[in-house]
Each structure stands twice: as structure tokens, then as C-alpha cells.
Amino acid sequence: MIEVADTAIRGNADADAADPASLVAEVEALGERLHRVRDAVGRVIFGQEEVVEHTLITLLSGGHALLVGVPGLGKTKLVETLGTVLGLDARRVQFTPDLMPADIIGSEVLEEGEGGKRGFRFIPGPVFCQLLMADEINRASPRTQSALLQAMQEHRVAVAGHVHPLPAPFHVLATQNPIEQEGTYPLPEAQLDRFLLEVEITYPDEAAERAMLLATTGARDAKPQPALTGPELIAAQSLIRRIPVGESVLDAILRLVRSARPENSPLPGIAKQLAWGPGPRAAQALMLATRARAVLDGRLAPSVEDVLALAAPVLRHRMALNFSARAEGVRIADVIESLKAQLG
């Protein structure tokens, strides 16, 4: 049975307040489907439970994720697996310095029809899908990155004065290599802020790596099986937004995000280390992500523990240290831990 928060709650729909039993039933049904989704992904992806959880939280929240990890940790495999398991049209674009905006969003071509009449026809690019993997996104030029920025934020693209809506749902899972920064173009802060979570992918433990070797080097490789559909994912995203949030969770989100801004941080030591901090979009992302995490764990409402668990992936790409803090060896991870400590 789904746990119900015993604190005062806030909902987004009057109907949910009038019929909480209906909301509980919907959340329980969604929880069962998500359990099947996690099992299906776990048969293919080994030793990355937290990475899978954070990626699913991103998709359930209707956002985009930045996957950061060294080569060979299964980032591409994860995106391909999620596309199959969630029943989404998934595509992959390898970002390179010579990649042009038209290579992503598409372009118009001149055609000659019957009677010699000429006209332009729009040929959609790979961005016209439901799950786009932008592989090594920081290797593309700023011009190309800006073309993807509009698609991520507005779910549409404009070519030659005509607006073309993208399919629904639409999500970008971008990968970034934390090493080998030569020849790369760091993502601008505006584009980084469009990513709901920054998901760090680390090496698997020995047991998971052993299971991976046995499962992936034999005569038959495990294949992902569909466990959800695109329309079901859209319905799940709508349901996530109706999940009630307790006053204590709302206060924790506001305290965490606002204290990460050097202008109004109540922690003098933190304020002196930061060049800039997260905006309101970070609080929105944390609000949605905590709801999604609660449902994944089989709970009706999020808790302060959800806020603490998701603080790092929500904040670390939305903050920057000043020069003196970097010179002293301070890390963003250390700052976030200090911010979390004030929440108890």
C-alpha cells in the first residue's frame, strides 16, 4: 500500500483533494508499471541502479538529463535500452565540431513538381523523435548547441520562418566526457540549466562487473523488452505533477536553493565561495524530481530525504565557484554537502 504523508499537503488539482482514494489508486498502478520498467532495464544495464533511477526520474518529470562519465560505462547502451523499454522512438546523434544545426533540426530542399513548379519541402532532422541521445554534446560548436537549445526548451524548431512541433514526449539524454577537453566547447550556462539533472556515471562494483562480463560476452546477449508506451509515459508525467507535496518538503527545497545563491545565502562561508547560484528553475526541477522519486519508491508524497538525495544532481551544474575557492581546492560537491547539512 502506498504510504500517505501525515503532514499538510499541497496539490495541483481540486479533484485530487476531493477524491484522494482515486489518486492513491493511480499512483499504485503507476508504481507497479515502473517496477516492471526497472526490472526490464536491470536485465541489460548492470551495477548502475542510481544512474537508472536518476534517468527515470528525469523522464517522469518531463525533463532532459546530462550523463557525465568516462567512455565505456554504458551511456549509449542505457539510452538505447530506455528507448525500447519505454516504447519510444529513439535516435542518436554523434556530436562533432563540424556538425551543423541543419544536421540536427533538418532543412528545406528545393523540389520541382509537376508542370515545372518549384517549391521547398522540409526534411525533418533526427531531433524529430521522442528520445534523442546527443552523444558528446560538448564537442559541437556553440551554433549547433543553440539549435538544440530551442528544441529542448520549446519542444519545437523554426526553419525558414515556419515552426515545426516535435513529437510528444520529447526528451534529450546528452552525454559528456569529463576528460579529454581538447577541442571541446563548454556548454553555456543557459543550456546547462535546461537539463533537469546532471547524472554522474561511475565505475560499477566488482560483483556488477562480473555479472556484466557473463551476460554480455556469451553467444546470446540480453535484449531489452518493452514495458511502457509513449502515451503511458505522458500520462505518468501528468500524474507526477498531481502528487501532493508537504510543507516541510517545500520549505526544504526553498531553503536549499536559496542558500546556494551568494546574494542571499545565510551561510557566510558558502557565499564567499560561489560566483553564481541556481535560479528558480532549479527549485522547479527539485520539486518535480522529488515527486518522481517518491513514486519510484512506492510512496504517495515526497519527503525531505528525497530533497537531500537529489540535491547534487539538481544543483551541481547550476552553480559555479569563484576563482579564490577554486584556488583553495574547494569542490562543488563539498559546497552542496554543506548546504544539505543545514537541512538536518
The total tally of domains equals 1
Order of strands, widest sheet = 3-6-9-2-10
Shape: globular
Order of helices and strands: EHHHEHEHEEEHEEEHEHHEHHEHHEHH
CATH architecture: 3-Layer(aba) Sandwich
CATH class: Alpha Beta
CATH homologous superfamily - what is it?
P-loop containing nucleotide triphosphate hydrolases
Summarize the biggest pleated sheet. Answer: 5 strands, parallel
Distinct helical segment count = 15
The average pLDDT score comes to 86
What level of helicity do the residues show?
Answer: 40-55%
Q: How big is the Rg?
A: 22 Å
Describe the structure.
The protein contains 15 helices and 13 strands. It is of the alpha/beta class. It has one domain (9-341): 3-Layer(aba) Sandwich (Rossmann fold). The protein is globular, with a radius of gyration of 22 Å.
List keywords for this structure.
17% strand; ATPase_AAA-3; Rossmann fold; 344 residues; P-loop_NTPase; alpha/beta; AAA family ATPase; single chain; 5-stranded parallel β-sheet; two-stranded antiparallel ribbon; 15 helices
